[in-house]
Amino acid sequence: MDLEIVMFNMSSYSEWQKGTVNRNYHIFYKLLNRPEIGRIIAVDFLPFTFKRALRNYWENILFGPEGKVVYRDLTTRCVKIDGYPAELYVFSTIDSIFSHKLVIKKLNKVLNLIEVQSSKFKVYSSPKRMIWSYFPMFVDCFSAEGGENLPHDLMVFDAVDNWIKHPSFIRYKKLLEDNYQTIAKKSDLIFVVADALVEFFKKIGRKKDVYWIANGVDVSHFAESQLSIINDKLFNKIPHPVIGYVGTIQHRIDLGLLEYLAKNNPDKSFVLVGPLWPVFLRKLRRPAVEIKKLKKYKNVYLLGRKFWEETPAYIKKFDVGISPHKLDEFSKYTNSLKVLEYLACGLPVVATPTSEVERFSHFIYISRDYGNFSEKIDLALKNDTMELRNLRIARVKQEDWDLKVGEIMKYIIEKVKTKK
């Protein structure tokens, strides 16, 4: 079975190339290597603000990824990128700030060009087209009322979290509520990362074909990485024990907890590997103040963004991995990737009890208050053994992305076969 996927992403392909990694990234690249998939048209993050449009125009249209140009005009670019078992096309546009209908119209035009130019499906009848979305700000792909539709055989939505509860999207709350209603009504399949999202869709009337597929981890990327030398002069001078975090510093991080840990553990180094999310600092004054406070501690090190290929080497130099996420309304709709990545490296982990963390309670330390979190770090350092490290790696192998995507494809193939 050869399937064609038009995927509306929550990131841009160029962002993935620069080191941004999320659920969307992992599933996208696994699908490119699946035997059922013949072609993917990756639709870059569709901007809904002029600032984001300018960024997209610069990064994705003027200086986008290299490849054979299939289509180009003033506001849109589509290129074919070789090197994968499935055909890959990357579609970038800023038309979404002017008209959502125009995006669909132009995408249809590009899809027709691809169909004419490609020889991938010449020996088959027309391929089954699947619309796959991570982006609840844009639902015209589901149903463009009064405008041009995007022909498809199957509609899939993958809910990474609940954008209604995301602090950065507060002013779009009503739009998102309406959009989730459309998604619930029009999707053939909905995948979610947390039980709370299953309940969320039930409350808005969607009970059937909603499947919980927790986040996974690329076990081989972490367990088999041969990179042991880090070309980072600052990091190599940091004294042990190293208590580390890898990920974007954004609203879900409890900066108050990090300050407490740094202040009350002067003998330990707290290393944060990841970028500071600009929107997080610009829109919310308090986080900017707390970051400034953190920088005052000599045992706190903010190393910034690192490439995905480097991540295992950093984690393996940690003594304990931490997941200091806030316990708020948003967190119950999320599913941490970082805990899995720490475990894939055999690392002892201390985490706050956010959604899905309890599944690993026999392998990690869980704490909901500041003082106990600090104590659990001491326990993690004291009790760590090679035997425990091997057990952690063995457990997390059950969460490999290949298994997750295989489960997703099982539901999709069943749906394709049964849908008229």
Structural key phrases:
six-stranded parallel sheet; 2 domains; alpha/beta; Rossmann fold; 420 residues
Folded structure, characterized:
With 420 residues, this protein is an alpha/beta fold. It has 2 domains: 3-216 and 400-418, Rossmann fold (3-Layer(aba) Sandwich); 219-399, Glycogen Phosphorylase B (Rossmann fold), CATH 3.40.50.2000. Helices cover 38% and strands 18% of the residues. It contains 16 helices and 15 strands. It has helices spanning 13-17, 23-32, 50-62, 100-117, 173-186, 195-203, 219-223, 233-236, 255-264, 278-283, 285-294, 311-317, 338-344, 370-383, 386-396, 401-418; strands at residues 3-8, 37-43, 68-72, 76-81, 87-93, 128-133, 154-159, 189-192, 210-212, 242-246, 269-273, 300-304, 320-323, 349-351, 365-366. Strands 3-4-5-2-1-6-7-8-9 form a 9-stranded mixed β-sheet, with helices on both faces. Strands 12-11-10-13-14-15 form a 6-stranded parallel β-sheet, sandwiched between helices. Helix 9 crosses helix 14. The chain starts with a strand and ends with a helix. 41% of the residues are buried. Residues 279-285 have low confidence and may be disordered.
- The CATH first-level class of the largest domain comes to Alpha Beta
CATH architecture of the largest domain: 3-Layer(aba) Sandwich
* Main structural class: alpha/beta
Q: How many strand elements?
A: 15
Approximate helicity band? 25-40%
What fraction of the residues are assigned to beta strands by DSSP?
Answer: 15-25%
Rg, please?
22 Å
Which consecutive residue ranges, at least 5 long each, have pLDDT under 50?
279-285
| General shape | globular
CATH superfamily of the largest domain: Glycogen Phosphorylase B
Distance between the terminal alpha carbons, to the nearest Å? 16 Å
Largest sheet: 9 strands, mixed
Strand order of the largest sheet: 3-4-5-2-1-6-7-8-9
Mean pLDDT comes to 90
State the CATH topology of the largest domain. Answer: Rossmann fold
The helix count comes to 16
What's the domain count? 2
